[in-house]
Write a structure and sequence with these properties.
Length: 429
Amino acid sequence: MNGNSAMGLGLSLLRWMAGSELIERLRLRRPIERLVYSGSRAGFQVAGAAARQFKRVSGGAPDRMSRPAAEDLFDPRISDEQQLIRDNMQRFAREVLRGAADGADQQAHAPDDVLAQSGELGIAWLAVPESLGGAGSERSVISHMLIAEDLAHGDMGLAVSILSSIGVANALTHWGNGAQQASYLPAFLEEAGMHAAIAVDEPRALFNPFELTTRAEPCDGGYRLNGSKSLAPLHDRAQLFLVAAQTEQGPRLFIVESGAEGLSVECDTGMGVRAGEFGRLYLDGVQLPADALLGGNDFSDASYAQFIALAQLGWCALAVGTAQAVLDYVIPYCNERQAFGEPISHRQSVAFTVADIGIELESMRALLQRACARAERGDSFEREAYLARVLCADKAMAIGSAGVQLLGGHGFTREHPVERWYRDLRAVA
């Protein structure tokens, strides 16, 4: 069944149910509505994603955001503007994401209203230069990492869904040429927003982002892409993909629209980060024009290495936010949980475990902030990003496991959110 027939069937059934007394008497209205919604929603999403057409614009020189003044010393303090942004993100995470997290995890789907509300936060405006209608004037890697951390404190899966498009917008701002920026960046500022996703990972063991099996071969003044990608967020909603593929010059990034012939997607729900709506992309002879190569000839091996390092820092920020959620949850739990006539936090083994979580969390945050500060100033940061990535992959998993352990049998149940955080943190490792 294609998208249009699914929509037609769904609407027909809904019209029939609206006037059916039998459905009401049998108390089947709600179950049938959920079933029809699932099928018709898929139809609407496939049709909507494939229908979008981007108008090619011949832009001039690309607009790059300026870098902040270089500092001799690493300063972990944040500005008043960044604190205001953090306050808004934390409030949204607390009041919206926390309440929607469990349902989004079980359904492996980010609620439409949550994504719509996230658009009101204005994150996309920070990623788009002022000359193209946005509010971005200065490159701020730290600000984006703080946003990722705060949203992940609400829920990592929903944070991935919200930030997926922002990652593509940032890449276009940092490396896209003038025509690419003018063609795509304004769409991120539309009231309805635009969903986009980065597709780098591939479904094979020991994957290395610098050794890609997805190939981009020159042909007819453009490129032909063949291969498959995994862990692409918002796979069935995204209207634009940034796909990593191997070229004769090395790994590069290509702008692929969802309606491209030869591109197909399928759901690939995993153990954790389920609200991220991860899926697989299959590229079977996808024809792309020459201007689909991000940045054109100006994008080099060094640019790709920086792109991967920034992506790793993004996952580190998500890990820090989720690990902070674990710590904030287990402290009051251990203080209130009684065993043998006293709080379990009075036991040294429990107290030391909680302290270890705090120590490891602060070390993760310190390495992350140091790498982000160097990236923001324009200094080399690949080494610092690698160290942060190694530490976060190790300690995030340990913190998730310790959180489950501290809750005992309760940590194994859905009664508490720690088991979900454990599964989400496993994705970082």
